[in-house]
Structures are given as structure tokens and as C-alpha cells.
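Methods: example folding runs. The two proteins below were folded one after another, and each record is reproduced exactly as written to the output file, sequence line first and C-alpha cell line second.
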Amino acid sequence: MIERRPVLTVISHLVLILGVLIVAFPVYITFVASTQTADAIVQAPMSMLPGAHLIENYKTALFGNEAGAGSTAPVGRMMWVSLVSALTIAIAKITISLLSAFAIVFFRIPFKSFFFWTIFVTLMLPVEVRIGPTYQVVADLGMLNSYAGLTVPLIASATATFLFRQFFMTVPDELLEAARMDGAGPLRFFKDILLPLSSTSIAALFVIQFIYGWNQYLWPLLVTTDEHMYPVVIGIKRMISGGDAANDWNIIMATAMLAMIPPALVVMLMQKWFVKGLVDTEK
């Protein structure tokens, strides 16, 4: 029986409320700034109440602003580039990791342990070590300022391969034997048995990889020079051109708020599957 202590309950709730306020306050300030004029934001102190320019600022951000000092590309286009890149990276990472883990666990391949640990060792290499050669390959193949250049170098994941391998190793051998007795081939066993068993892990990894792809900064900064191929994170950086007075901070803050929406929606819509995929141990 769990003993309930009112004092500890109150303290725990206060700590939770304090944590929410600490996290939510910068978001609220960003939202307030996105509803103000550019002149109102640079004044000290800035108003803590939302302004009357919400629709105007968000419309300008979505469809472009020819008068801005920095990048004036439409944020709607940037969000589309980010969405395509994030979905491609997430789906491709999961697909490649599932297939590679399936091959490593269920196929008799010479030196398969060596190949697995070769994949795993890549986690120890910092991004900066391989980003130069990767950029050279992408440039030589003419993939700069393209969706392929933004996504293809990022679609392999040693972490996801390791996680799926560990999960597949817990699948009982009886399932494999039963599938063989029913005449199921490797692909049917993969599709009808392994994929349903892996659904929660796939959902959890999809959320993580989507946010990873959406928030990419360093790689898109190297491979994109055309405004129409900027992801939204790069777009925010390009909008900042100089001192405070030279930037349209209201438009920049509106862009930042818009950039938060897709990842937040993915997390909220898939929260149940995400948590279950991280904590569920039933096989």
C-alpha cells in the first residue's frame, strides 16, 4: 500500500509547476514578441501582453517579406523543405535500420558480427570528422541545394540498427520455426511478425528521428545556398542580419513559433506510442 503524504504531494506539484513555468516562459515571450511591431520589441521593457499584429506578422512570415534586412524567403516554403527532409530522414533511417538488423540477426552471413560492430563504431566518430569528406562527395555528385543532398547523407543510423538488433534478439525462436512450418519466407516473416512486434519501437524512433531531421542545422548550413532550399532552422538564422535595430524581430519570432508547431504536433499525436515504445518490455 502506498502511503500518501499531503506535504510531499504539494512539494512535488510545486516542483512540476516551477519546471513547466521555466520551460514555457521563453515560449510565451517568443509568442508575445511575434504579435508586436518591430519597434515595440526593441523598446525596454517590452510589453508582456500580446499585441494586435498577430495575423499580420504570421502572414508576412508565411508568404515572405520583401522589406526585410535578412532573408525574405517565405517561411511556408522553408517549413515544406523541413517537413520533407524530416519525414525522409525518419522513414529512411527506420527502414534501413530494420532491414540491417533483420539481416544481422536472422541470416547466416560470414563476419556479420564484424559488420555490426563496424556499424556501431561509427557512433564514436564525431560529426566534424566525417562532414568534410561527406560534403565533398555530395558536391561532386551535384546534390547541393537539393532534397537528396539534405537527406541522403543522414539516412543511416547506427543507434537505430543497434536498438532493433537488440529487440530482434529477444524474439523467440519458436516464432521463426512456426513461420517456416507455415511456408513463410524471410520477407513474409519480417512483414507479418517482426514489424507488428516492433510497432511501438518504430513509433518511438520515428518521433526521435523526425525531431532530429527537423532541427538539423550544421549540415543544411553547408549544402544549401539557395533561399528556396533553406530549412526553417537555417531560415531563422538567415533572417538575422545585424544589430537589433536592423532585424524584423517580430517576423523572426513568428517564424520561430511556426517552426515549433510540426515537432510539437508529432510529439502530442504520438505521445502514447512514444512512451510505450520506450518503457514497454512485453514481447
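Second run, written to the same file directly after the first:
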Amino acid sequence: MAFFSDPGQWLPFTFAGLMGLSILIYVVMDGFDLGVGILFPFASDDEKDRMIASIGPFWDANETWLVLAIGLLLVAFPAAHGTILTALYLPVAIMLVGLILRGVAFEFRAKAPLTQKKHWNTAFFVGSLMTGLSQGFMLGIYIMGLQYTAATVLFALMTAICLALGYAFIGATWLIIKTEQALQAKAIAWAKAGLGGVVGGMAAVSLASPIVSPRIFEKWFAFPNIIWMAPLPLLSLALLIALWVGLRRLPDPDDKKAWLPFAATTALFALAFGGLAYSFYPYVVPEQLTIYEAASAPEALMIILVGTLFVLPMILGYTYLSYRVFGGKATALRYY
């Protein structure tokens, strides 16, 4: 009860939870449309139009969650915001260039002459890949405590590749839902090929985190924590097996199971994110700043919380509405 009676305790915890939720939703939702862009080189011109149609109503709104997460970091944990973005300045800049390139290419490919369309398709792929790789690099450096050494940069490069493959995988599972016939068959093949990258990325992050920090090692492997936390890796393993089996049973004749790979991947990402959150709590800057040390004054957090209670339902409502209205299979792309 003392925790809830002290705003200096529950407010930073609440904002850390909101920020984590925003990041998770962003990774899943913008992850699939980044993944669709990363898969562009493997599709024909007509298939690229159908792939764009599958993310067209959603991709711009998906990035709102990234803006919300960074905004919450800035206003709720300003000390951490400065430390993290200073350490990650270059990959953040690369990510922003990638996002801008994606946005410009998305619009221009629809209006450019046919002879130039292939260049904008390439730009869309490059922007998607830049964004995925830079986010993976940031994740790796964050896990390594925001330190730059040969070993940490090598690890960050590995996580960059694995996260990009993870985005491609969830993008493929999204296309399984939204497409039909030949393109859906291709998406199933892409998902089968990308599952290994998801496994490798999760294994690398899971092994590196406790090695880097004795505190994290203690949280996972000390008794009785190892018993309480055992369901998380076991559930992750079960989901990976279910994905491997499920993908081999697609496509099914009535297409009723097309949503299962995407749902399982979303659950897998949520479990992985939950494991990371548990590992690093209460630190917002690994081994340097806790959420309580980095938080703004309780009075400021209370004002921000009131604003968040208005903004967050609007974002959730708009997201739900867009996915409800534009549900079903992606149709042929037309511009009027």
C-alpha cells in the first residue's frame, strides 16, 4: 500500500509501463509494415502493389506509437532521454532518414512515371531496411549498457540483422492474412525462411543480457526466480514450435487459419519484450539510472498523466477503427 500512496513511486512505474506498452505496440504494428518493405526485392511489380495495398491504411498511424514512446521518454524521464539519445545519436539519425525515405517513396511511387517507379520501390526497400537495422543496432547497444567497444558494436550489428529479419518475418505473417493465391504462397515461404532469424535474435538477446549484467543473471537464475520465470522461455519455445508446425500446414483451403502465424508472432514478441522489461527493471538506462532517479517531479508527472489519459484512448480508438474498417484481403491497388 505504501507504493500506491507515494506518487514518487507509482507515477514513474506507470509511465515506464506506458512507454513500454507504446514500444511493444510499435514493434508489432510498424514492424509488420517495415517487414513488408524489407521483402520488396523478392516480389514482382504487381505483387509490390498488392503489398503496398496491404499496409496502406495503417503504416502512417503505426508510427504514432514511436512518437508516443519517445515523447513519454522525453517528458517523464528527461535525464534518461538525454543519456540514451546522446549515446544513440547516429543510429537514431539513420532511422529518421529511413523513415523519411519510406514516407516519400510511398507517395512518389504512386505518382511517378512507370519508368521511375522501380527507383521509388528501391527507395521504399532501402528506407525500410535502414529503419529496421538502425533499431536493431540501438537495441544491441542498449543491452550492452550504451557502451561502444569492438565487442558491443559487433553484438549490436548482429542484433540489427536479427531484428530486420524479425520484421521481415512478421511482415510475411501479415501478408499471409492480407493476400491470396500466389502472393500468399510466397509470404508463407518467406515466413518459413525467416523463422530461423527470429530464433537466432531471441537466443542472442536472451544469452547476452545475463552475461553483461550480474544483476540480470541473478534475477533469472537465482533460486527461486529460476522457477518463477521458467514459464516465459517455455511459452516462447512452445510458440516457436507452433509457428514452425503451423506454417507447414498453410495454406488451408478455407483460409481460416491465416491469422494464426501473425497472432503467434505477436505473442512471441510480447513475451520477448516482457523478458527484457523484467531484466532491466528498475533501470531505464542500464546499470546507470533507475526510472525513479530519471523521472520528472511527481507534480509534473501528474499533469502529464492527465494529458496521456486523453491522448492514449484517442490513439487506441483510431487504431482499432482503422483496422476494423480496412480489414479483409488487400485488393488491387488503385489511385484516383
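Comment on the second run: Residues 7-38 form the longest helix (32 residues).
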